[in-house]
Amino acid sequence: MNNQKKLTTASGKPYAENENSQSVGARGPLLLQDFILHEKMAHFNRERIPERVVHAKGSGAFGTFTVTHDITRYTKAKLFSKIGKETKLFLRFSTVGGEKGSADTERDPRGFAIKFYTEDGNWDLVGNNTPIFFVKDPKKFSDFIHTQKRDPRTNMKSPTMMWDFWSLNPESLHQVMILMTDRGTPYGYRHMDGFGSHTFSMINADNERVWVKFHFKTQQGIKNFTDREAAEMKSRDLDFAQRDLIEAIDSRNFPKWDMKIQVMTQEQAAELPFNPFDLTKVWPHAEFPLIDVGVLELNQVPKNYFAQVEQSAFAPAHVVDGIGYSPDKMLQGRILSYPDAHRYRLGVNYEQIPVNRCPYMVNNYERDGAMRIDGNGEDSPNYFPNSFDDIVADQSYKEPAWELDSYVADWHDRNGAGDNDHYSQPGLLYTKVLNDYDRHNLVSNIVGAMSGIEGPKRDEIINRQLCHFFRANPELGMGVARGLKVDLETVMGHLRHS
Description:
Layout: H1 35-45, E1 58-67, E2 86-95, E3 110-118, E4 121-128, H2 141-148, H3 159-168, H4 173-180, E5 194-195, E6 200-203, E7 209-218, H5 227-236, H6 240-250, E8 256-264, H7 266-271, E9 291-300, H8 305-310, E10 323-324, H9 329-345, H10 424-433, H11 436-450, H12 458-472, H13 474-484, H14 488-496
Antiparallel strand pairs: 1-2, 1-9, 2-3, 3-4, 5-7, 6-7, 6-10, 7-8, 8-9
Helix pairs in contact: 3-12, 4-10, 11-13, 12-13, 12-14
């Protein structure tokens, strides 16, 4: 008995009755004084924190990032300081639109969020398995997500909502086409690429800034489900991707990705025919080739899913010295919204939760708030400047100033001059990136998805979306129109008048 652990309350009091409530007689009413009953039930009632509004269902694992190539000419970030340097990390995969209990094989983008635990603080690279996104301005984000959730009247997923939004926002076409390929139903998480998606910046030791995009190429090889295979797996195993990841790591078949970057100078950015900070666009690899950086490996399954996966929190705002932001409008919006979401869901002190906590030095004057668990600064000053502590603002970490291209503050049209070509890159995706097999499945998947559009606006929504497909590539438009049995003269009439 002496070697066994005693059962205790949350405050540490040992107790014996864990199965029987205190009552007046064997069949009488319960007593209010049975605190153990209240503690167990009250905690049970609060076991579920609010699920994420997006990326609600996810899987995660710990691992390492190892530098294999020298990129110090671009960045002074310490995790890239020398070849062979290892940095611990946590990576969370997720689906975007589904709830926490949804299927892993739904047609959806996949989240690809990495937390690097560096000696200069935690760096969160929060991206997806696609290099682009559906919208280019954060004001559109909540509207878009609402269309991927549930209809406010029926409380069911609605193809009508989805396609109505996409048909009214041609900037979505590029991502919609990627989603409708088999890349929209990846075979688990190990067989897909990851992307930082946004444009970020790197700053070197001479305070020179370049623009950069991050890519993670799977060493396991790309592998996707077809639409039919994804549906079959959904009926057999809702947690396929979670199971696949855990079984791979437990069998020491550690998943790996090659990190690569694209680099663009500020002069090159000014000369591009499109906005390089537009999240609906890719940078052509022929002009901005991939540069090798290192290898990411996942090698440890979290010991407790809730503590380390469900409570993990990532924010694009969390960058480190040598890595910075860009004028990417969606990135600018996420800098604000992601930490705000975590403060709501997990509390203002969410960065003290072990999986989110920086394992190195943290010094600031933030105090109090719910669930403060780090001593709350004890008796040190809670204001700055002061005459008592030795915390200093190290000026060597000061970033160089940005040179802005305008001093006019206005609500600029996100589809203004130079930003309104929504068809060239989707057209290239169809003709240059996809093969015949991919193109066939793309058309089939689009037809299947659009067949669910209902209601009095059905024909209007379909014809409007078909116009986008025709503008990207006539063959694509024709294939979808035939599959939906749409009168081509009607579509051509919409094209001529839109």
